[in-house]
Request: fold
Amino acid sequence: MRYEGIVYRPPSEARSLIIQVTIGCAHNTCTFCNMYKEKEFRIRKMEEIMEDLEEASHSRYASWIEKVFLADGDALIRTTPDLLTILDAIRRKFPQVGRVAAYGTAQDILRKSGEDLAKLKEAGLGIVYVGAETGDDEILRYINKGVTAAEIISAGQKLKRCGIQTSVTLISGLGGRGKVREHALSCAKLITEMNPEYASFLTLRLYEGTPMYADVVEGRFERITADEIVEEMKIFLENVRSPGTVFRTNHASNYVVLAGTLDGDIPAMMRTLEEAKANHHYRKFRETGDLL
Ligand code: SF4
Reply:
């Protein structure tokens, strides 16, 4: 298998075969993100993808592959015929694969017709991971996400109508000290309206070289403390209504690990947050010169 640069995938795709169908991220200008800064975006040649699938199908682990993840940042930017060709090859070479997944931006999802998404679902695309980050339009503009909250919601609802599962990621602390409540309430509204199968929060971490890192160092953005992040999460949980959504804050960046299903497990998760705050029982981050 040939991989170009660092390849990112969601934690739940740890055991998946990863195939790069694009290199990098076409947007690549979110002010907090450094994931694909080293890569110049391009659509990968179909011959290379087919060669990778062929090689993987001859590996001794081939029969164990049950899931495939299409990388890099926004695989859904490829045309629907291209994606159908790739999904068809996966089905032929790995008949036991039960689910294909990809990262998808709201822009990519909205560009596809409902008919196209239904065809992709039929061909095996089972879940799309959407990095929403927040539901607040002002914060979305500040981080240069390139979409509005209404567009993210509309993209999620479109996936749902087409039978494709959605996993939404949000970022604790993304509004800074000035927008704790707005960020929490807007995230609750976003998840309520999308009612995704999965939702999770990371915690804001900033790498040197990103515009937001400079904003912190130069005093234009004030990060919030672990106690404030707990309060932000409590506001989110008090206001979200999304029955059946599997909810997690179990990334290495999270101060408090939560795991439950909305809405029924909200009281238990609130108790976990209150206990963590009362005892200052937080997971520790290690800050370094180039990582805040
Ligand atoms: S956050 Fe996602 S869309 Fe934004 S630059 Fe990073 S990979 Fe691209």
User: Anything to note?
Assistant: The pocket of iron/sulfur cluster is lined by residues 25, 27-28, 30, 33, 35-36, 73, 105, 131 (CB under 6 Å). The chain has ten helices and ten strands.
